[in-house]
């Protein structure tokens, strides 16, 4: 989830558990601690472009790390801020722990994947109920927290936290409706999917991207789940076959190992990019949900030596045509 949403969610829980006289300081501690796990984005390597994919949403996002991560936040924020405002260290740690504890669970509501139980397992949990940026989730929380802080009303902070629980629940209902529509669409095509998932499109829980896998292909479609259900049939693409698509690649090379790392990150949804044969794309994400315009990919090089890593590339499809296509689905016109 975006840092602001993470921060205000952490603030809503810490304020909900605070005393009236601690409302502001509890909110600040919860806000900053709620954003702190995403400092793992600083773990990068100029030599290994995929390193950040392995560490983002890893140990800092583990539920088992909450006591340690919140303690580190409290050690810093208590001396810099909270102690001067009359809080004992235990109180600072409590508010930091409450804020920190919300982060990984909210991230798991998105479709990116979060290692909730690292180091016991490196499984990436993705419940696919909220987009990584969603104003309908964040703006009510921000508004309620502002009034809670200005008016010193604890109940407003609690309402904000309740909304943070309600919205992903609505997303879960919408996800299940979208998946049901996806299964019907696959059945109409006489397909029996190996797996099928519905993911919220950008900034809403009304239009969903349905991705399903058959023996040899991936299919992507859009589904609008409002008062009625409307489907927008989309594209399909052959699943990645490394020996077929990259016959020149040495299976023992670093590039081959990087493909498997990228496969783990993308939950197996890999295909050769139809617009650039040296790119391997993550099929799961696109701005227009029924299209195969990946948001990120890796690039291979036939001339690279055995120790050279792949390149990591991001693709921001923010063209007017893409925005209009998504708007048409959102507003059903």
TrEMBL record:
Coiled coil: none annotated. Keywords: Membrane, Transmembrane, Transmembrane helix. Pfam families: YdjM. The chain crosses the membrane at residues 23-43, 63-81, 93-113, 125-148, 155-173. It comes from the Bacteria. This is Inner membrane protein.
């Amino acid at each position: 989830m975006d840092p602001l949403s993470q921060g205000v969610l952490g603030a809503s829980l810490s304020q909900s558990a605070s005393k009236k006289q601690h409302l502001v300081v509890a909110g600040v501690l919860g806000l900053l601690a709620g954003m702190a796990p995403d400092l793992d984005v600083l773990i990068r390597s100029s030599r290994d472009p995929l390193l950040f994919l392995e560490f983002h949403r890893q140990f800092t996002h583990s539920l088992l790390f909450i006591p340690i991560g919140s303690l580190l936040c409290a050690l810093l924020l208590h001396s810099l801020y909270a102690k001067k405002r009359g809080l004992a260290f235990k109180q600072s740690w409590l508010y930091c722990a409450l804020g920190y504890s919300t982060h990984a669970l909210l991230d798991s509501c998105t479709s990116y994947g979060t290692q909730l139980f690292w180091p016991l397992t490196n499984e990436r949990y993705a419940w696919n109920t909220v987009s990584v940026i969603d104003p309908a989730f964040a703006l009510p929380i921000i508004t309620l927290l502002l009034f809670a802080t200005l008016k010193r009303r604890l109940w407003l902070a609690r309402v904000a936290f309740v909304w943070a629980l309600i919205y992903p629940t609505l997303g879960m209902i919408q996800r299940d409706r979208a998946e049901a529509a996806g299964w019907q669409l696959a059945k109409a095509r006489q397909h029996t999917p190996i797996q099928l998932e519905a993911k919220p499109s950008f900034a809403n829980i009304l239009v969903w991207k349905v991705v399903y896998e058959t023996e040899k292909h991936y299919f992507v479609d859009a589904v609008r789940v409002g008062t009625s259900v409307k489907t927008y049939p989309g594209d399909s693409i052959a699943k990645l076959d490394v020996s077929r698509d990259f016959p020149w690649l040495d299976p023992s090379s670093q590039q081959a190992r990087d493909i498997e790392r990228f496969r783990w990150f993308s939950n197996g949804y890999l295909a050769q990019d139809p617009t650039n044969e040296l790119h391997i794309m993550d099929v799961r994400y696109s701005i227009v949900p029924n299209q195969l315009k990946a948001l990120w990919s890796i690039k291979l090089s036939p001339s690279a030596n055995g120790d050279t890593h792949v390149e990591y590339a991001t693709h921001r499809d923010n063209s007017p045509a893409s925005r209009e296509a998504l708007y048409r689905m959102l507003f059903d016109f």
